[in-house]
Predict the 3D structure of the following.
Amino acid sequence: MGYKSSFSRGINSGPLNRYILELLICITLSLLFVLMSLSKSKTVNNMKYLIVSASKPGLVFANMPFQLVSDLIQYFEKIGNYKTLNKSLENENKFLKKEFNKVNLLEVENFRLKNLLKLQEVNYVEKLSARIIIDGYRNDDNSIYIDIGKKEGLKTNDLVFNENGLLGRVSQVGTYSSKVLTIYSSDSVLPGISVNTKHSVFARGDGDRLVLKHLENKFKLEHNELVISTDAAGFFKEGIIIGKIVKTLNDVYIQPTAKKSDSIFVNVLIFDFKKINLD
Amino acid sequence: MVLSFFLRIIPYFLLILFIFFEFAPGYFSDKEIIKPYFTFMFLYALINNDSERFRPLWILLVGLFYDFLDGEVIGITSLFFLITLHFLKRKHRTIVSIDFKIIWTNFILILLAYISVNKFIQFVFFDNYFEFKRIVLSFFLSIILFPLFNSIVKKFNNRLGYINE
């Protein structure tokens, strides 16, 4: 290490020179922001969601290389076993054609029954599509941010899901963006029901799995059976897949079917409680 | 003149880009990738190599922007970097050249202190639990990648100084 002479140190030694003044003002402002965020100030919260929304173009741009590499990997994975994939898709196609015919019959039957009972269609649930703009990778509450908010009618507790199942619920709403608490978070507790054994369960997030709460004998559940959401407590929409039961020698837990890495796009169910009350 | 201007704004541009990279969702196939503390590494390397260029106001703005995207405690990153800037400035006034091992050790200690304070505040005031595995992986990845970042920034600064002269 080499040391400079003390001469240069003496030039800017005034206690209120420009740099020190700027530094002090900036430190004070930082501290002010820290205190405001600790007191959960609404101003800071609104600023946060405005900045998140305004950053969307930059975040989408930064996501492009990841998306490109991910698409390439998936493409090569599919190319590698295209014969097996083709066979399974053909089988799935046959199965779905049969199911589709059944659904057509059921729809006609449902329409007739509704007419008999004089039931009216109610659309108190609306489905919106959104894009994940921020993945709080190191955030402790396993949260993500999506690009829709109050402006689109989003409210706290609206459900977020993708093609594979339930992903989480809206925990904070900004004007143009919102925060989603994923089901993996330890703060998330979901009411559900097992499809085969018909046991009501509560599933709490625990890393990459969901642990079962308030169930006396977990081992009554079947391995690999589906767990779907119920509308217990009035917050949730019933029938959305949460995950599959996994039974080991000494534990039973739920392996969620939906992951935030499945797709950059998600769906949100928006409830209009006023319409529910009216009907 | 134009080239000099572009070279001057490149670090700020890269800094913003790194912030976006850190928070943009990144998955390879269906696996989540481990991201190091890009912004922290780059900003520390910039301040360390040319502490005179970075005004506290820039640090405040960059730090606040980072925190607004990051999570709950707004202002903590700028506070950390403002204090770091001041100490590094003082050090650079008295010491002409610093051994890289010392720079690296300082970086590790400051990053460790930053993560600890940030997570502690989140734990106490927001009841958030630790994603310990991810944080540790990101931390070690940042330590490994810092020499690379630092040498790139150093070379860039030398080139910029050469062009300015």
Chain B has a mean pLDDT of 83. The beta strands of chain B are 27-28, 31-32. Chain B touches chain A through 62 residues (CB under 8 Å). The helical segments of chain B are 2-23, 38-49, 56-70, 76-94, 100-126, 132-164.
